[in-house]
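Late entry, evening session. Most of the bench is empty. Finally got around to the prediction I had been postponing all week. Sequence below, unchanged from the version circulated by S.P.
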Amino acid sequence: MDILLNCACHLTQRLQRSFVNYEETTMYSLETCPSPWLRTHSVWGRYVVSFLLIVTQLGFCSVYFMFLADNLQQIMEEAHFTSNVCQPRQSLVMTSILDTRFYMLTILPFLILLVLIQNPQVLSIFSTLATITTLSSLALIFEYLIQTPHHSNLPLVANWKTFLLFFGTAIFTFEGVGMVLPLKSQMKSPQQFPAVLYLGMSFVIFLYICLGTLGYMKFGTDTQASITLNLPICWLYQSVKLMYSVGIFFTYALQFHVPAEIIVPYVVSRVSENWALFVDLTVRTALVCLTCFSAVLIPRLDLVISLVGSVSSSALAIIIPPLLEIATFYSENISCATIVKDIMISILGLLGCVLGTYQALYEMTQQTHFYTANSTRVHI
């Protein structure tokens, strides 16, 4: 992210522009690179990044569908025997009444109505609500994980196949890479953004490490794809799942905003003004339906997270930015150490992309484990 910021800042000064997004940064970097072929085809860099942003953001939206469906399933199917006394989930077993796909289709019309709202001020309100509900839920989850006893003698290291899935999952957390440059452009003091970025990412990394470690120590190998699915059965933690789901629901609109801003103007520009509004709403509705049907086809939350992270997030967050740094600063005597560092980072990202994608696709083909991650295990 920091490399991407430096490249974009350098290009805005060189081109005397007020702002360049990720796609434009890629195109302008290639225009000044040492390769004549890349300079001639620099516009394809913009197309590739646009495509990856669309795939990544729509992949995030599909994951949100699965998350909402999984948590809504537990809330609804456990409501009739939920009480004020918390019951540990590990000792309870029950078969689901309705498939998670039913809940995905139930959520679909509400998300369609949500993405039709295009007012930036309304979206900022949604962002605030999502932040409040998510942080409140995290506080209660941490409180539960800290106060309860933990497993002992857990393996410290998993096998290499699990590490490949972990790579994709970890890179998936860089879901904000496409929003870095737009956020900087909206700040009153853009020069302070790097400090804000480092502070924010450090806080997020700390939360991920603590939640992942405490969750694994508490639930061990029974840890679900979403930690909320492991919470005990009582009204307090059902409300936690509900609050977290509300946060994810509103966050869907924010993640959807990126691909919509790329696709909708392109399509609308090819129709008459009389049809512009109808086409705008139709394209938005179709994109939401696409994310829903993708979730319906592959209802494995953990594997989809890993696949999206391996395929597109790794390219946007690890592979492309170091290459852009070489292309942007090559003509300005970039040091050999920087070139070696950038190449090593990109190779690491490429290996993770290829191997992580292969492992995620392989796991998806294993029908015997298809519903393991999303099964609801409760006993009345």
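Two things to note before I forget:
The chain has 13 helices and no strands.
The radius of gyration is 22 Å.
Will write this up properly tomorrow.
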